[in-house]
Amino acid sequence: MSSSATPGTLSRADRIGVVVLVGVGLVLAAITVVGAVIRLIETLGGGRIEVLAEFAGTPAEAPIGVDGAPVTVALDTAILSVSDLPLASVISLVIQQVILVAAVLIVAAMLGLLVLGILRGIVFSARHTVYVGTASIAAFFGIVLYPFFGNMAANGAFAALSDGTFENVILTVQPLTFIVAAFVAALATTVFSVGARLQRETEGLV
């Protein structure tokens, strides 16, 4: 793929800022990947598996009254510890972590390539637009699919614990999160695309 760009000069402060940003991003990506690997080992290692579950305001007792007296509260989320999690739920947990790792690695790789170009003095180019677009798509699908498979696993945990007698099959959807993620992805891709086009037009005038 050909890239139309004109190298520029970054100040020392700009370079330091970019390097620090990349360093922080790499650390966060490494922490996420390590956490996902640990989660996979726990899921596939046998024994009890902890699953984050969403509740629809289910009443529960919490020792928050006088001298620890139980008080009825509305339960929204809880960690379920299940020893006989259905295979479908185990597979959902595995897919969830694979999606997380894949999204993080793709975003980190694309942004790393973008930063390398910026450090060479190239900000807007067709190649950089592809990097930003790919990272945005990976992040968006990660945000959408990660909770989806988590909910599938939680529904299996409910079924295992209650022998199918507790109906709590809900799929949490955060429309605002999806809208914001899609908007940011589209905005970033558009900015780099327009920047690359304006740069080509400017070069044509020189």
What does this structure look like?
Keywords: Membrane, Transmembrane, Transmembrane helix. This protein has helices spanning 12-44, 87-119, 126-162, 175-205, and strands spanning 49-62, 71-82. The protein is α+β, with helices and mostly antiparallel strands and 206 residues long. A two-stranded antiparallel sheet has the order 1-2. A hairpin with an 8-residue loop joins strand 1 and strand 2. The longest helix has 37 residues, at 126-162. It is elongated and about 70 Å long. The protein starts with 11 loop residues before the first helix and ends with a helix. Residues 1-7 have low confidence and may be disordered.
Number of strands: 2
Proportion of strand residues: 5-15%
Overall shape: it is: elongated
Quickly count the helices: 4
Assembly category:
single chain
Largest sheet: 2 strands, antiparallel
Q: List low-confidence stretches.
A: 1-7
**Cα separation of the termini:** 24 Å
Percent in helix: 55-70%
Could you tell me the radius of gyration in angstroms? 23 Å
**What would you call the structural class?**
alpha+beta
H/E element order: HEEHHH
Whole-number average pLDDT?
Answer: 78
Strand ordering within the main sheet? 1-2
Key attributes of the depicted protein:
about 210 residues, alpha+beta, two-stranded antiparallel sheet, elongated, disordered N terminus
List the helices and strands and how they pair.
Elements: H1 12-44, E1 49-62, E2 71-82, H2 87-119, H3 126-162, H4 175-205
Helix pairs in contact: 1-2, 2-3, 3-4
